[in-house]
Amino acid sequence: MSIKKSILIRVRLVFLLVCLFACAIVYKVVHIQFLDGDKWKSISKERRIFYKPVHATRGNILSDNESILATSLPFYRVAFDPTVAKPEVFNSGIDSLAILLSRFYGDKSSDYYHRKIKNARHSGRRYVRLNSRQIDYQDKKVMSRWPIFREGKNRGGVLFEKVEKRFKPFGILAERTIGFINEDKNGAGLEYSFNANLSGTDGEALFERIAGGSKPIHDGTEVNPQHGYDIKTTLDINLQDVAESALYKALEKTNAEYGTVILMEVKTGEIKAMANLGKTKGGYIEDYNYAVGNQGRTEPGSTFKLASMMALFEHNQEVSLTDTIDTGDGRYKIKNTIMTDAKINGYGKITVQEVFEKSSNIGVAKLMEQYFGSEQQAFVDYLNKFGLNSTLGFQMEGEARPYMKDPQDRNWYGTTLTSMSIGYEMKLSPLQTLAFYNAVANNGVKVQPIIVKEIRKVDEVVQSFETRVLNEKICSDETLKKLKAMLEGVVTNGTAKSIHSEDYKIAGKTGTARKVKDGRYVREYSTSFAGYFPADDPKYSCIVIIDSPKGVNVYGSDVAAPVFKELADKAYALDLAMHKPMHARVVPDKESLPVVQAGSFDDLKLIYNKLGISTRTETADEDWVKVEAKRRSLEFKPNPVLQSKVPDVTGMTLRDALFILGNQHLEVKVEGMGKRVKKQSVAPGTDINEDKTITIILG
């Protein structure tokens, strides 16, 4: 066969194969287009059209007076369908719209937005995200009036895609208590614990996939979301602020590791403040709920002596507060360990009352040995009866479980009874300790602490949480009488006498527990103070824990008790119901008039009328007056406060002086001690310039 013929045959074969392949392609196209067309159109539609969840609005978290602690605010991303607007609307408005977008976002030129929108319209793109930056509701209202946008979604093509953000109006106040929840549904605090109520139920709507994103299709099949419920807490924002501020100052002053404060209403168990601050490189923040969780569960130390004394009095009612115990020279050997007291050389022979007031470890240990040495199980049984071995069933997730030893345990040693009696070899959370102290304040009724009062749907109460009694009578009335006397004695005569108040009675107990590191007790301490006030008619109970303070004075009386006092003072000042009532009428001593120099005309007039003291007034038009004593009466003289002039505040109370000077926009510095202003650094009547500072001296 010639070479020419061979090549011709090969070419024909290749041509035949190409023709067959082309026919196959044509057949496949026809088959897909006409025979399988409906099938592939259906698949295409299914992939292009899809249901997307529409997230429910999360409920609010409210304080006790319904101030918002956490809420969801709407933000928006701006998208645009440039194919919707009619040509005349689009062409007349595109230039102005591009300029407005450029000015508003400040990131691109007006030419950029002009080209972006026009190119999308020409190419038929039905979805363009104009900018990734989120805008708030006020910005949305402004944008809705812009050219093209003012035509709305259906005729103008503007799309405001809603995005919700969690917002806390009071910033970091009660941050850990309010808590958080992330996209994985993990979190902490109230946000996490009540997520099922707050989150609501998501809806869904039909969306279409288009170039650059997706677009909602309003076909009537949408399922509207069921928005979350609001929860009303028991927190008082004023007391919460004071608690956090006082705690922060104490932690910063002592360079401590962490601290917690809980303030609770005695009768109801409602928590009015819960502050938790932990040490970080940048200062102290609410990084963990030490009040409730496992990290705050520690050996309570001397605050636990209240439980030991309760067990003692219940076991033997004949034990009197005047019975004496010889605590010796401050060192006492128990088995192979030495127990010591805080005072060098010891307290010697002291009463049971003084054992508690002075927080004598040896005194408590000897009492335990005397009455429970042969009945150690009875001691633990009393603690269990008091509920100290059980959780409280608190409303927030993560409540720590108490750790309490039992004589049947393998790690119950010969020294365990005496160690437990002074707050060692066992662990409690601050909330569990407070609930026990609260029961003493509440005449033996132990109530469950609560932090959420109601779950609401708008103004309708869906669920309410009432005070729940855990133990109707934690101990006998005789025992309560002794315990209350001892707790008051701690503040009047004992380790916490530095926080004694003349205005109201405080009852409580200090605690200073050595910490364990690597299985051994070291010279680092967890300091505490737990108690209630006013002691004669308790309204609030409170516990303060400050962990690992540094410095010379690291006892509960030096570190934790002052925080308690600061919070108690504020709570007392805010709650007029706790104040002692004034007598309806006090018979004045006509021969000696009260020494008052200046103040509010209305206040002074009211007081003197109540006291039955004669007054004379030069004018009735002035808000502020000076007082001049006559023989048998007081005379009010005008003390006007003039605009842009330094007022005369000498003789006024600090409160009145701060009020007047603050209203004049003066920065005030206070020096000295006393009830009234003795001097002021800037003379009355002086012109007030910018950044004016005035110093007032009390005397």
TrEMBL record:
Keywords, A to Z, come to:
Carboxypeptidase, Cell cycle, Cell division, Hydrolase, Membrane, Protease
One GO BP annotation is: cell wall organization
Signal sequence bounds: none
Any one Gene Ontology molecular-function term assigned to this protein's record: penicillin binding
Recorded GO cellular component terms are:
plasma membrane
Q: Which residues form the PASTA domain?
A: 637-699
Return the Gene3D superfamilies for the record.
3.30.10.20, 3.30.450.330, DD-peptidase/beta-lactamase superfamily, Penicillin-binding protein 2a (Domain 2)
Which InterPro entries does its entry note? Beta-lactam/transpept (IPR050515), Beta-lactam/transpept-like (IPR012338), PASTA_dom (IPR005543), PBP_dimer (IPR005311), PBP_dimer_sf (IPR036138), PCN-bd_Tpept (IPR001460)
Q: Where in the cell is it found?
A: Membrane
Classify the main location. Answer: membrane
Q: What is this protein called?
A: Cell division protein
